[in-house]
Amino acid sequence: MEISLGLAVAVFGFLVIVSLASGMWIGFALALAGIVGGFVVGVDMKPFIGPTMWQSINSFTLTAVPLFIFMGEVILRSGLSESLYRGIARWMSFVPGKLLHSNIVTCAVIAAVCGTSVATAATVGTVAIPEQEKFGYSRRLVTGSLAAGGTLGILIPPSLMMIVYGAFTGNSVAKLFIGGIIPGFMLAGLYMTYILLACSTDPSLAPPRERLSSAYFGNFVQGFKEIWYVFPLVFIILGSIYLGWATPTEAAAVGAFFSMVISALMRRLNAKVLKEAAFSTVTTTAFVLWLLVGASLLGTGLGMAKIPAKLSALVGSLGIDRYFIWGFVVVFYVLLGMFMDAFAMLVLTVPVTYPVMVKSLGFDPIWYGIVLTILLEMGQITPPVGLNLYVIHGLTKDGKLEDVIRGIAPFFLCQLIMLAVLTLFPTIALWLPGKMFGY
Questions:
Q1: Which of 5, 267, 419, 422 is most solvent-facing, going by the fewest CB within 10 Å?
Q2: Pick from 3, 36, 4, 45: which is nearest to 18 by CA?
Q3: Nearest Cα to Cα of residue 208 among 141, 135, 149, 133
């Protein structure tokens, strides 16, 4: 006997909440909810457990995950991020807000070689916070810009979130990467615009900017010497994908190799760096893959109970404007971000929201991947669970978490504005993917 949609949703929802609340690892919690929920609603899950676990991670696309993680770890642990920050700070010295802009630009650049939000925020924050506290910058603006800037790590490619989304939904990771370039740098521009306006309106928020002079050209050249390595590395990754020379996985392999070459050329590579980078890569990759396994088992249970299909049919039959449904989805993710990590949000919700948004309402899957990534970014800075808030707070000596939360509010608004712009003008996210070679 087939149970109703409402009862099936209630069963799976209850099991997910109880499993997560029990404190077990998220991947195991999702797997348990999927298996037990399937049996409760009358689905024999035994024949699907083994094949689902294998198929969820038996993917050439997912090979890019450890490679991109390793590339970012080598760059971060070899200390190249510190020289990157110093170089960009030289370039930003004449702009109102000075080092605050360096926070955003450095996060954006590191995002182009890292792929994770928390690592980006922690890396830049470690260098930036002591420097900016010493010169009397507004603590709220410092911590807010770093927490928000860190979220660029999952929007500006390479992005682990996009890899997982692409593998989960069967969409091109290459197109997702290229589609995230313009929105990612536009969002960084919105952050910097706010900083510029805030510091121009209230000069006490940051030290006075330097005047443009002949000495600035020398600073510009010196800054370039400290960040030159980023340009060939970014071209190797994004340029090769855009031009059709390499798949994301191939680009990740080449990028990981060149990250070691660059670190060696700058005399920053040693056995300790490689060991720490390799260990961190293994632990992070294991975490991501276990999430995928658990989410796939949950998705199988939901699919066998026909919840996504029934929900899509229900939404399609309501006759409500699709943008109203999209607004509801935005609110849903913002609220969910208050209680759940971004990766968990992604793998838990995509099996349900993707069929509704793409298959039922007709939104472009690449566009949805980009805006979903921004929604996941918002979860990274939404209290009480936003990881970036705690990472940045932990780097301050005697600061209050309240200051970080208040500091992030204007940047959260910038993310909402970016969502509205992409909703009104989806071509922003789709134009570059449509011009790619070989796709």
A1: 267
A2: 36
A3: 135
- Determine whether 54 is exposed, middle or buried from the number of CB atoms within 10 Å of its CB (0-12, 13-18, 19+): exposed
Indicate the residue type of 423. Answer: T
pTM of the predicted model over 0.85: yes
Q: How far apart are the C-alpha atoms of 239 and 169, rounded to whole Å?
A: 24
Tokens representing 307 are 């919840």
- Ranges of residues in the chain whose predicted pLDDT is under 70: 1-3, 115-116, 212-216, 385, 399, 438-439
Nearest 10 degrees: CA dihedral of 92, 93, 95, 97? 90
Amino acid at 15: L
Euclidean distance between the first and the last CA atom of the chain, given in angstroms as a whole number:
45
Cα 74 from chain centre = 19
Question: Mapped to the 3 state alphabet, what secondary structure does 82-133 carry?
Answer: HHHHHHHHHHCCCCCCCHHHHHHHHHHHHHCCCCCHHHHHHHHHHHHHHHHH
Taking the C-alpha atoms of 280, 286, 287 and 288 in order, what is their torsion angle to the nearest 10 degrees?
110
Q: What is the predicted pLDDT for the residue at 438?
A: 64
Residue 215: predicted pLDDT:
62
196-212: per-residue pLDDT in tens? Answer: 999 989 888 888 877 76
Are the C-beta atoms of residues 137 and 207 closer than 8 Å to each other?
Answer: yes
For residue 341, how many other CB atoms are within 10 A of its CB?
18
Q: CA-CA distance, 281 to 299, in Å (whole number)?
A: 26
